[in-house]
Amino acid sequence: MQTLEARNLSVRFNGQSILQDITCHADEGEFMAIVGPNGAGKTTLLRVILGLVKPSSGDLLVYGKPPQDADPKLLGYVPQIKTLDRSFPALAVELVVSGIRHRWPGIIKPEERSRALDALEQVGARALANRALNSLSGGELQRVYLACSIVRRPRLIVMDEPATGIDMVAQKTLYQILEDYRKNNKSTVVMVTHDWGIANHHATSVLVLNRDMIDFGSPKDVLTNENLAKAYGHAGHPMLPIIE
Amino acid sequence: MFDILTYPFMQYALIAGVMVGFLASYYGVFVVQRGLSFLGDGLAHAAFGGVALGILLCVQPLWIGVPFTVIVAIGITWVRNRTRLASDTVIGIFFATSMALGIIFLRLTPGYSPDALGLLFGSILTVNPLLDLWIIAVVTVVSLFTIPLWGRWSYATFDREMGMVDRLPVLRDDYLISVLIAITVVVSVKVVGIVLVAAFLVIPAATGRLMARTFSSMTWYSIAIGVFTAVVGLLVSFRLNLPSGATIVLTQGLVFVIVMLLTQLALGRGTKRREAAPATPKNTP
Questions:
Q1: What is the ipTM of this complex?
Q2: Which end of chain A has fewer CB within 10 Å, C or N?
Q3: Is the per-residue pLDDT at B284 higher than 50?
């Protein structure tokens, strides 16, 4: 079953083209990585998938519907941790429960706590349940955000550069957890990343962007020196040796 | 001390103080966490323009002050959402324009306007039963309507984008919160005055933030501090013959300083305890 399908999708803001003629798809259980340089329109594409931006032309369907009409319960969103307001007083378990309620919890019911602890257990962060969010490291915070996403058992997980600001060990743990969840639940993952190595190792399909669509397909076919040069304007991407 | 509670004017003042303290400190948590502290000041000065227009037109000032301030609140939110200007810039523009309008309206008012000074510095001891009823009605209606929205507003306060992804009416709530803060400000002006009304929105919530680990406890602490300082400030102002609005705000400031010092002390002790604790051996199971 197709989770996500974009056909000739274009987005323009104030007469300026942000995305041009994007065609791609992700089937159930797939992991699609969106890669490209800064300003390539990766986050805009993510915002279209999340229903926050409407396409100027073409269309994008999530489970056969425009994203605005798709059931938000099917969707788990993991934002960049750098967007977290660290002055907001909150415990990790509260953030996870907010994933169930789609509201911030005042009083947490026992069954909600139990579901939240299960989700934290799945990401190896049960011990963090009663820790303040502003006391967590980047890697810990990213796992709590992931628990907040998977607690609603989404069929589509959308992640915006989840590894930004976290160390290599925490990144490896995060991707392993994500892989396990995806395989066990046949969920689809769409992730924006700068890291071609991660796209190469984990993704089942890759979309290379630089406002225009450069290529879409399996990592082996798409992550080539030629596409790298087209996307970045040179062939000096630091992750290239890993791909080769 | 408590014999003063037998005076009817004091009873009316206490009711008004408690009601305003409750409402302002409830909205205060959203004002503080959304970085809108300057909004309270801006709307208070907008209220001055509206109330001055009421004085000029010889009608009950609050009848003009409320809609005038609500329109300014909607204007601030609209311009903030539609332009790339920062919140404080937009608020500053509306703040100064409304204040200038208020000064012109008062200048055009024939004769002396004693209400104007009361507006600037508050006159809680002149609150009458009718105004008390008005304040109680506003606080009750607004509370019943908005307390169920606490979870939704808090979620969008934590992360706007997550709220939008979950299809919450985040933009509509921006307007709603601004309008309700405008109503709170106009209701509070009689108690504390335009000059100091922003303190009611900011200081109890900021003190609550220092004490709280969760947003719900921050909300409860803020309300408790808002109500407590209104009562204590009012009683002290009567006993020492000081201006009531200023005394309430000074009480809030004092509570903030005490809480800040105590939390810093507790943090320092926690750090020392951790440093003094023996390191756990790595092979300990």
A1: 0.86
A2: C
A3: no
